[in-house]
């Protein structure tokens, strides 16, 4: 059953992120990875099980005790490679880490770029509770990541890119309309 990988990835992500919370300190973190998967599937229209699994697992290496070997063992080398491409090297200083991550995103397969766009889209949707400064940081990072994934997208992924651009513009317009 091809969808089995999606169900297993959802359960794996739920276990891996079980004690984590979002920045609002109230929402379970795993809701983010579930929403990223839902965005990739229902907003962007991609139903490939390996892509959906990567969307669910995109933060497991970076934010939990999971390593790439765990992902390879459970989900295979394709999903593991995609999750690795979506992972920042937290051992590096911030500036170097971000530069390497952006370069990796730019060179990544289009499926990884779609998962990253799902992440960006969800983070933009989920930033209403942030301060104006927090929203500006989210918008700035979103712009950087969208610029990184823009090239090499097949036609079917370009629509997802357009939806992310629109969401970013909406959040930025809200910042422009609010008092400084």
TrEMBL record:
Stored SUPFAM superfamilies: HD-domain/PDEase-like (SSF109604)
Coiled-coil region: none
GO molecular function annotations of the record: guanosine-3',5'-bis(diphosphate) 3'-diphosphatase activity
Keywords recorded for this protein, A-Z: Hydrolase
Domain of life assignment: Bacteria
Pfam families, per the entry: HD_4
Name recorded for this polypeptide: Bifunctional (P)ppGpp synthase/hydrolase relA
